[in-house]
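WARN retry 2 of 3 for item q-0093 after timeout on previous attempt; input resubmitted unchanged.
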Amino acid sequence: MYSERPSLVAGAVVWTNVPSGPGEGRVLPDGCMDLLWHDGRLLVAGPDTRAHVTGGAGGAWAGVRFRPGDGPAFLGVPAHELRDLRVGLADLWPAREVARLTARVNAAADPGSGLEAVALERAAAGDPLLHRLVAGLDAGRPVGGLADELGLGARQLHRRSLAAFGYGPKTLARILRLRRALRLARSGVPLAETAARAGYADQAHLTREVRELTGTTPGRLLR
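OK item q-0093 returned
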């Protein structure tokens, strides 16, 4: 069972997941990075360009999912260095510090709260310019117009996006559009109308993007 709540870390959420049984899970790309706890260990999930298929690691998971662009400030690592990766926190930070934080999370009332306390201790203020970029892309605005509005050239925007999100602004726009479409479809909006409202050319375009980014069909994804 999956559950989440707003975090005290600005823009983040705290989530827990206890799989109901064996089998694959599918974590969809969302432009975010997560600090994870599993089986007494601390890990990091980098930004995904495609769905991350889970399996074989049973037991409870917990995480703090930072809003897009905020994870690198917490970790001190550019997002593109962790793109499509899951790594131990000890691969990024000194072992003694990770051991201290791991003991703190394991001693907490629940792992999610322990992770949140760690994130609060080290959280850094996000970049307002990047937050504006994300908000604009999430609203379906074109990359070029947003770059002009933010006073960034194409190369500068791409470079800053790689560091903050793990990929360029056009890839981030595709991922956010997919998330927007899934919210509509899950609320009961028919797929053809979902495609039009989310900014796809037609339902076939939506279906192709779902396959490309998630590895499955809209029908299977929405079951």
